[in-house]
Design brief:
171 residues, alpha+beta, six-stranded mixed beta sheet
Length: 171
């Protein structure tokens, strides 16, 4: 886990005060549900099936055990309503710049446009990145997520690169 992150972090949204905090193992079901709540994730297999739960729980334990990774959740009125994963990456390019990679950003579908996502992403750039010594925040977004692209652009993110993925065949 990224020990330097200034957590927990309380913030106001249009629907109340929320808390951004580090995920714990007991949050696994809520995070799985947020992934399944997203049609693109669900189409990739994130369907919150009971038989997949051990795989997700193991992944959460691995993320939290890794010093360069963290999984965060947003809690509102006692319920987990958002999540994101952060990875701190040292690099050689840009004169040895460290990057903070943001992955799997999700806000419950019924709470989008509530200000939760904006507040979390502002915190990433204004608090999390400096805390880990990152000079850049980067993320990828599925090409089909046009609403998300507009969201990130409104927050000052620039679509400067084209990403590629390779699915490793299962043995």
């Amino acid at each position: 886990m990224l020990d330097a992150l200034p957590l927990p972090h309380s913030f106001d949204s249009r629907i109340g005060t929320a808390v951004l905090r580090r995920a714990v193992v007991d949050d696994a079901d809520a995070v799985i549900a947020l992934l399944a709540d997203d049609p693109i994730s669900a189409a990739r297999g994130d369907v919150a099936s009971d038989e997949d739960r051990p795989v997700y729980a193991r992944a959460l334990v691995e993320i939290l055990a890794e010093p360069s990774n963290d999984l965060l959740v947003v809690e509102l009125d006692g319920a987990v309503v958002g999540t994101l994963q952060l990875t701190s990456i040292p690099g050689m390019s840009r004169r040895g710049a460290r990057r903070l990679l943001v992955e799997a950003v999700r806000v419950h579908s019924g709470l989008r446009s509530s200000g939760i996502g904006s507040a979390v992403m502002r915190w990433v750039g204004e608090a999390a990145a400096p805390a880990v010594g990152a000079s850049m925040v980067q993320l990828t977004s599925d090409a089909a997520r046009t609403d998300a692209h507009r969201f990130y652009e409104r927050l000052g993110y620039v679509g400067s690169h084209r990403g590629f993925k390779y699915n490793v065949p299962r043995a």
